[in-house]
Specification:
- The chain is α+β, with helices and mostly antiparallel strands and 425 residues long.
- It has a domain of 153 residues.
- It is built from 13 helices and 16 strands.
- Helix 4 crosses helix 6, helix 5 runs parallel beside helix 7 and helix 11 packs parallel to helix 13.
- The longest helix is centred in the N-terminal third of the chain and has 25 residues.
- It starts with a helix and ends with a helix.
């Protein structure tokens, strides 16, 4: 009896092991479906270079690369890289992680680009823009002087964009905070918002308290940076500056739904240009975040009235207007060059409008503007290559494309694609 019991236990144990072994051999490894990425960083990674700078591991993004080899090229007057593009890339990488997750490589790139931007802050609190390949900072070229200009404002936006993702590192977080505090002190001092007086030139009213006195485009970039800073710090000085900038931008909005230029926001005095024309985008962001309906309404007027006209008549690089009586008309228009930096602001604004309104017309506008990259343009040529990540530097005319691919075009096209990816989520 004992022998049978022991043998039965042995056979039961043996068959159990056999069953487990067979079950394991039949199992298939778990299939991990790769994330399909419509946003290709390959060319951006080609332009991205890590360097030692100011005693830190830093990174730059090379300004130019020329067809067909696309090797990075240094400009003898400006340099190899600039704050304007690196800060823009920092913003792009934050959008990238929103779509694809907080990957270690993305965060590492952000941190190293942040080190470059921080090191480019001049002792006067503003930022020099360009650096040469020998790591000499260009302090003398007009587009690199440390002053209240595009690159200093872009630095603010870039640093505020990456801060939430890098703040777990106390050292870099503190240095970002100190850098922004110095910059904001300058902006408060130099932005003439204590007296919101306007100026009328040839019958057209302009605000006089924006960056460069009249620059609505730069005011929009500043609003975006200050809004991020307010969300982080609750500094009420930001609200005062944002409101003043928004009022100036709204004064620069001309025409109406039925009259030229159909609620377009002028970029600078009587000029509209496509590049950097982020006024609608900035007003929407600020209006939604701060519950300012007048900002939102003004932004939607440009989106609903001017943007469709621009699509119907074909893209423009820019135009100048005049006023006769109460009617605006066009003095001159330039159709080319057309660049990704001219398309991205309209994609950003229409995508923001769709998230706010859920109006399918806004989604259609976003799709139509973004289609410029894939060939819906005057040259009938795909400007962005999904396989290589190369975005051409622009359309020269209806039959000629600039096939070079520098930092600005690359990053702005990626921002367009990321905006459209976010709309799918």
């Amino acid at each position: 009896m004992t022998f049978l019991y022991k043998n039965n236990r042995f056979f039961l144990f043996f068959y159990l092991l056999l069953f487990i072994s067979c079950s394991k051999s039949d199992e298939q490894p778990a299939v991990v479906t790769p994330v399909k990425r419509n946003v290709n960083l390959s060319h951006f990674d080609h332009l991205y270079k890590e360097i030692g700078f100011n005693g830190k591991k830093a990174a730059i993004v090379c300004i130019y690369s020329e067809f067909p080899a696309y090797e990075p090229l240094e400009d003898p007057d400006e340099g190899i890289s600039c704050v304007d593009d690196v800060a823009r890339a920092m913003i792009m990488m934050t959008e990238y992680v929103k779509v694809y997750g907080n990957e270690a490589t993305s965060l590492d790139k952000m941190a190293k680009m942040t080190e470059f931007v921080l090191a480019m802050q001049n002792s006067n609190g503003y930022f020099n823009n360009f650096i040469f390949s020998d790591k000499t900072i260009n302090t003398w070229h007009p587009t690199s002087i440390a002053q209240l200009d595009w690159w200093s404002l872009r630095a603010l936006c870039g640093l505020e964009a990456v801060y939430p993702l890098l703040k777990t590192d106390p050292d870099i977080a503190q240095r970002i905070e100190q850098s922004i505090t110095k910059l904001k002190t300058n902006i408060r001092r130099d932005l003439p918002i204590s007296s919101l007086t306007t100026e009328t030139v040839d019958g057209i009213e302009y605000p006089t308290w924006l960056p460069q006195k009249y620059a609505g485009d730069q005011a929009a970039l500043l609003i975006i940076g200050l809004l991020k800073n307010y969300e982080r710090t609750s500094d009420n000085d930001n609200l005062i500056m944002i409101d003043a900038l928004a009022k100036g931008i709204m004064i620069s909005q001309k025409g109406d739904a039925n009259h030229y230029p159909y609620n377009a926001f002028l970029s600078y005095k009587n000029q509209w240009h496509a590049y950097g024309n982020d006024q609608a985008n900035a007003l929407l962001k600020a209006g939604i975040a701060l519950n300012k309906k007048e900002y939102v309404d003004s932004a939607l007027k440009e989106i609903d009235n001017f943007y469709p006209k621009l699509l119907q008549s074909g893209f423009a690089e820019g135009f100048f207007i005049k006023i006769t009586g109460s009617d605006y008309s066009e003095i001159s228009r330039t159709k080319f060059p057309q660049i990704a930096y001219g398309i991205r602001p309209m994609v950003s604004a229409t995508a923001e409008a769709y998230r706010y309104s859920k109006n399918s017309n806004h989604l259609t506008l976003a799709k139509n503007f973004s289609a410029w990259l894939s060939g819906s343009n005057d040259a009938a040529t795909a400007i962005y290559n999904y396989d290589t990540g190369i975005c051409f530097d622009g359309i020269v005319n209806a039959t000629q494309v600039n096939r070079n691919s520098g930092a600005e075009s690359t990053i702005e096209s990626l921002l367009v694609l990321l905006e459209m990816e976010k709309l799918k989520q």
